[in-house]
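Worked example

This section walks through a single chain of length 76. The input is the sequence exactly as stored; nothing has been trimmed or padded.
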Amino acid sequence: MRKKTTRIFVLFLLFFGIGDAAAEDFQVPGDLDGDPIVSSEELEIAEQDQKKGKITPEDLEKIRHISGYSGVINKI
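Given that input, the structure is written out below as tokens.
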């Protein structure tokens, strides 16, 4: 019984340890201030960066897509 409890505890620690590590590396493309929302100002900066060649058109489309969800997140 004790071995089973120990195994469950170790698996629990591994599961949440990996989850925390993954969450720390999570970044939202186009977000400049560290929150998970792409504001209209950040979207404008991304559009300027794409015109300057700093980001690809595909990256800008991802940022626009994420920005579209930002309004939904703010309403919740």
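What to look for: The CA atoms of residues 16 and 27 lie 19 Å apart.
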